[in-house]
């Protein structure tokens, strides 16, 4: 499920994001006690617990003890609500990272924080990056990463590419873990059952697999199974995240040294 940001009224959405509209307390409403922030917080709680597919104005209203219609005085539609949810939850991320050790450990810290953030709020991964929300916290997240990377000395044009690369890398790792966590409940089959059934069938339908695909066999040959209860795919993503990030940072260092 992909959700595109910016589907509500442009002027109203931007005013709500940047809080340039009327203050909540002077807005008419069917019942006192509601606010934009309360509605957004309730919507985030719905998405965190039930997923983006369950999000509706009615469901949010139920959390607040109101009807869905009562919310429209404050948030005109679900389109504006998604924008507000996305930008508000980004405020959880640290605004600054320790630069005393240089840009490399700071980027590592940034990446680890963002990965953990996505896994706390997997619905955020369903909000497409094709159309940014353009809210204050989205800009703060971008500003924080650029602040770290400016220490590399790379010019803006090259730095933009590095920012996009790191952002896509972390988002991709988080999406794989998130989807692996959703798969058992969505399919009714655990990861262990799925792999056991198909790996045994692969040996049956593809005899001589190792000779047909020697490079795949070789690259998988040193995968030692540690004594852990962590799901296989999550463990693999954790390993590849650490290795991949280190390789990316090595590449950035090489670009810096090359001038």
From TrEMBL:
Gene Ontology process terms (BP): negative regulation of DNA-templated transcription
Annotated Pfam families: TetR_C_1, TetR_N
Source species of the chain: Nonomuraea mesophila
DNA-binding region residue numbers: 56-75
InterPro entries, per database record: Homeodomain-like_sf, HTH-type_TetR-like_transc_reg, HTH_TetR, Repressor_TetR_C, Tet_transcr_reg_TetR-rel_C_sf
Entry GO MF terms: DNA-binding transcription factor activity; transcription cis-regulatory region binding
UniProt keyword list: DNA-binding, Transcription, Transcription regulation
Residues annotated as domain HTH tetR-type: 33-93
Transcription as UniProt keyword: yes
Metal-binding is among the record's keywords: no
Identification of the protein by name: TetR/AcrR family transcriptional regulator
Domain of life: Bacteria
């Amino acid at each position: 499920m992909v959700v595109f940001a910016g589907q509500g009224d442009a002027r109203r959405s931007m005013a709500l994001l940047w809080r340039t509209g009327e203050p909540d307390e002077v807005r008419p409403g069917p019942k006192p006690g509601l606010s934009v922030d309360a509605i957004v917080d309730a919507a985030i709680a719905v998405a965190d617990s039930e997923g983006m597919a369950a999000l509706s104005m009615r469901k949010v209203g139920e959390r607040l003890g109101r009807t869905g219609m009562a919310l429209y005085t404050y948030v005109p539609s679900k389109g504006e609500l998604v924008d507000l949810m996305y930008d508000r939850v980004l405020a959880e991320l640290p605004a600054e990272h320790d630069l005393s050790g240089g840009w490399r450990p700071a980027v590592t810290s940034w990446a680890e924080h963002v990965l953990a953030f996505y896994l706390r709020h997997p619905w955020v991964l369903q909000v497409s990056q094709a159309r940014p929300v353009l809210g204050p916290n989205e800009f703060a997240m971008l500003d924080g990463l650029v602040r770290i990377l400016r220490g590399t000395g790379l010019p803006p044009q090259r730095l933009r590419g590095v920012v996009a690369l790191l952002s896509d890398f972390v988002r991709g790792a988080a999406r794989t873990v998130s989807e692996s966590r959703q798969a058992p409940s969505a399919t009714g089959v655990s990861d262990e059952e799925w792999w056991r059934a198909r790996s045994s069938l692969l040996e049956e339908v593809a005899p001589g697999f190792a000779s047909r695909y020697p490079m795949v066999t070789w690259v998988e040959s040193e995968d030692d199974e540690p004594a852990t209860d962590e799901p296989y795919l999550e463990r693999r993503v954790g390993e590849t995240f650490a290795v991949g990030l280190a390789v990316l940072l090595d590449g950035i260092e090489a670009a810096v040294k090359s001038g």
